[in-house]
Every structure is written in C-alpha cells, then in structure tokens.
Amino acid sequence: MNAPLEHPMVPPTDNPLLDYLGIRLASVGDGRCAFELDIEPRHLNRQGSVQGGVIATLLDAACGYAGLPMRPDGALGHAVTVMLAISYLSRASAGRLRATATVSRAGRSLYFASAELAIDAGVLVATAQGTFKRSHVSAES
Prior knowledge:
Layout: E1 5-6, H1 16-21, E2 24-29, E3 32-38, H2 52-66, E4 78-88, E5 96-106, E6 110-119, E7 124-135
Antiparallel strand pairs: 1-2, 2-3, 3-5, 4-7, 5-6, 6-7
C-alpha cells in the first residue's frame, strides 16, 4: 500500500464550499483522509463555539474523501453521502480542528467510513460514521 499523500502534493479539494470555509485537505490516500480548519469568528455560533454545521461539513468531507479513488491524472473521483451520523461530544471555540477519517469497508460502489474531529489541544469534539456512494460525474456536470 502507498502512504497517504501529504501536503503539498495533496490534490485540490475541488470543492467551493470547503474552500469558502477555509477547510484544507491535509492528506488523502489508501482509505484515509484528514482535513484541517483554523477556527475563525465566522465559524462560531451565537454561543461562541464552532457551529454544528461546520463540524458536520468537516466530518462529512473527511469520510467522503477517504473513499475516493485517485484517477490516472491525479485528480480525485467523486462520491455522494448516503447517510451520516454525528455525535457531538464537546465544544471548540479556538485553535485548529483536524478531522481524520478511515474507510472501514468498501464494495464496488458503496463504502463505509468513520471519522473523529479533534481540536489541536487533543480534545475530541465529535465523531461520525457514514455510508457513501461513488459517483461518476460527466464533463457536462
């Protein structure tokens, strides 16, 4: 097996939402993926902690990208989320978040992945488990 790709050789996310939020792809390959986000005021809710939707986006992206095939041109394939279950465990309001995901089982089109989201201080913020379906996107999409 090849080692996961590490920055700066990581392919671009090719995802405008992740780019807009400042979520960076840190590593991807061999059924694993990691995304990072430096918490900014725009990521916080009214209580001053990271908005649940931002947490969900990080976990969804990490799980989804973990199962993406690498195309011959070096670009990542595509998938859609079929199901995602999230457990919110603690708050985060400052620092760097890191979502790490691993594919636990994969078939021809469906794969299953789990992820953890932790703050750089080592506190586990949330976990997720999901089911994803590989998809084929045409050039016209």
